[in-house]
Amino acid sequence: MTKSLVTGGAGFMGSHVAEHLLRMGHEVVVLDDLSGGFRENVPHDAHFVHGSITQACLVNDLFERCAFDFVYHLAAYAAEGLSHFIKRFNYTNNLIGSVNLINASVNHNVKCFVFTSSIAVYGAGQTPMTEDMTPIPEDSYGIAKLAVEQELRVSHEMFGLDHVIFRPHNVYGERQNVGDRYRNVVGIFMNQLLRGEPMTIFGDGAQQRAFTHIDDVAPTLARAVDVPAARNQTFNIGADVPHTVNELAQVVGEAMGVPPSIRYLDARNEVAIAFSDHSKAERMFGRRDAKTLSEGVAAMAAWVRGHGAKESNIFEDIEILKRLPPSWACATRAPNRSEIVGN
Fold first, then answer.
1. Distance from the CA of 185 to the CA of which of 54, 199, 256, 297 falls in 20 to 30 A?
2. How far apart are CA 211 and CA 229, in angstroms?
3. Of the listed 72, 77, 122, 141, which one is catalytic?
């Protein structure tokens, strides 16, 4: 039987990919440290291993015992804006952890490594984003993702490790951690409404994004290893139609049945307009009938109402306080000197 590892499989995107792999007949092992995911998200028929990709010994032992055919690497802390202020944490989790997996994949003859990168690698001023553009990431998260992409490229050239890289964007849907205040704006909005709070928007809300429902991404990621021509290529994947954050707030309010009340915060350093072209992925994997924003948000809202509000997580160990948005600064703390020395 085909055996696949899914990192981050207790999280949002990873749990959906794991579910599709099980339907395809794979034996699935999920590796997750539960820092952002939940044990109940792991599909019932998957084998769960509680641990982090940053633990090289654990990763190596797992590969030795399981002899994986394929690796689906979705574990990441995907907070682009916050990544400026948590550089060490960002690179440890999003880059060094990925390198641990790449090393183990090379050493244990993995057939293909599927990696979820991000359109954050492109930076600003490149819309619609196409795969042949020169990446110029503008935040530490995007830099880490691009570095992993390049590691996969040289690992293929040097060691023959095949890979498929996807650059999804603004993915939302059922099982998303709505208690994370630093990422996933759809979940943040829904959680705020459930808690009777106003929806908060950085800047004027004119930022444009193409919001993507998970059902329009996970199936393609899962079956990528069965498309030989996709090997060692990079694909944008996601929704085609951009919307402003103000438009999103109206759609979320309607889906949640709550008249939207919006509180505008000071603008933060972020790309104003970000959406990508998906024609390459459509040529390779076929075109899917994507959910509209209203359809996708309505599906997520039904799930969120059934699960209730979550306490917003606070990221405590901020490494840089300079220019930290005030709404984040009041809910965080810097590590004290003894903690810094002890690292």
1. 54
2. 28
3. 141
Least Cα distance to 301 among 236, 342, 257 occurs for 257
pLDDT digits (tens, 9 = 90+) for 286-306: 988 889 999 999 999 999 999
Verify whether residue 77 is a known catalytic residue.
no
13 vs 30, 68, 172, 244, CA distance in Å?
12, 20, 9, 23
Taking only the tens place, the pLDDT of each residue in 95-117 is 999 999 999 999 999 999 999 99
The pTM is what? 0.92
- Measured on CA atoms in the order 183, 295, 119, 91, is the torsion positive or negative? positive
DSSP letters for 225-280 = GG-GGGTTEEEEES-S--EEHHHHHHHHHHHHT----EEEE---S--SEE-B--HH
Contacts of 332 (CB under 8 A, 6+ apart): 314, 315, 316, 318, 324
